[in-house]
Amino acid sequence: MRERDQKRIFARAEVIVGRFFGGGMLALLASLLLASQPAMAQSSVEKAETRQQVKELAGEQERARVAVEKDKITKPAPPEAGEQWGIYSTRSSMEIGYRFENTRGSRERFLSDVNVRDGFRLLDYSLDMRARPGTGLLFDFLKVDANNNGGDLAQTISMRMEKQRLYSFDSQVRRFNYYRTPGQEFALGYRTHDLRQQVSNFQLKLFPQRMLQFHFGYGRSMAKGRYTPTFSYESDMFQLLGSTRWEANDYNFGTNLRYQGWDFGFESFFRGFRNDPTIVSKPGIDTGFGQPAPRPGAISFLDRDVPLRSRSIITRANVRGSIGERVQVVLRGWHDDERMRA
């Protein structure tokens, strides 16, 4: 197309020159034009085409931008890729197994350092469910994770659930198996433990995206199992048999208010603790701190209960905001009340 356009331009030039200078000068001028003007003619044609393409491209980009902005306004973002269950995009995975344990040597040391038992295990589990914000029935987002459940030294289960502008809920449960070997490093190896401990935490927040928010929480820590304290009398040390169960229950409530750049917060926390150990004697054991006692002694009987109760209430409030552009104000108040009875 460019060669034909050039020929048309040159043909028009010949007609114009022929009118003014006649046929004698026509051949000379035509040859000069052919020698000197092709680059200029080609450059002018290319510039004209480039400007037109730029205009068309700019128009297409503008129309595409308007279409994308309109689509963002009218259509919510799609959920992440996954298997579709109704309105939820779901992804899940599970890893299960069985642990075999074969101990040679000191089993007490093995339990103290590793504490892994035989049995079926849920090694890893994950569940992720998502819906478009505001379209879920009970929740817009749900995530569950579990690791090493079934008897390992440490086990965890966690869950998070949210519904836009209504609530968010977080929970976590952790379990620990604690074993102390009856070695000679402390109290001649007479103080040992074999405890199962669990720590749980649950938090609920209402209206998380609004000006006024409320949050509630509950936490629980507990342990139970065998432990063996000692009793010393007249240079003799006696090993006692015991079991314990202690637990702490935590409750909290609070609210937050945001108003014209100021934050107002209030929170109250309550903890109740109880410990109920039971201790009995183990007759006939007399160490004398590792030396033969002149008169071997023994405990005829011993039954000791040492219940412990305590409670604490903590209340705090805060105000935070700015006065002008250079002054920031923070006010905090705290009140603590604790009691213990044994």
Short description:
The protein is about 25% helix and about 50% strand. With about 350 residues, the protein is α+β, with helices and mostly antiparallel strands.
Report on the architecture of this protein.
This protein is of the alpha+beta class and 342 residues long. The protein is 23% helix and 50% strand. The protein contains 4 helices and 15 strands. It has a 15-stranded antiparallel beta sheet that branches. α1 (2-21) packs antiparallel against α2. The longest helix is centred in the first third of the chain and has 37 residues, at 38-74. It is flat. The model is unreliable at 1-49 and 73-79 (pLDDT under 50).
Features:
342 residues; alpha+beta; 15-stranded antiparallel beta sheet; 4 helices; 23% helix; 50% strand; flat
**Shape call:** flat
Q: How many beta-strand elements?
A: 15
User: What's the gyration radius in Å?
Assistant: 42 Å
Poorly predicted regions are 1-49, 73-79
Distance between the termini: 103 Å
Furnish the topology, listing elements before pairings.
Blueprint: H1 2-21, H2 23-36, H3 38-74, E1 83-85, E2 88-99, H4 107-113, E3 119-130, E4 141-149, E5 154-163, E6 167-180, E7 193-206, E8 212-227, E9 230-233, E10 236-259, E11 262-275, E12 278-281, E13 303-305, E14 308-323, E15 327-341
Antiparallel strand pairs: 1-2, 2-3, 3-4, 4-5, 5-6, 6-7, 7-8, 8-10, 9-10, 10-11, 10-12, 11-14, 12-13, 14-15
Helix pairs in contact: 1-2
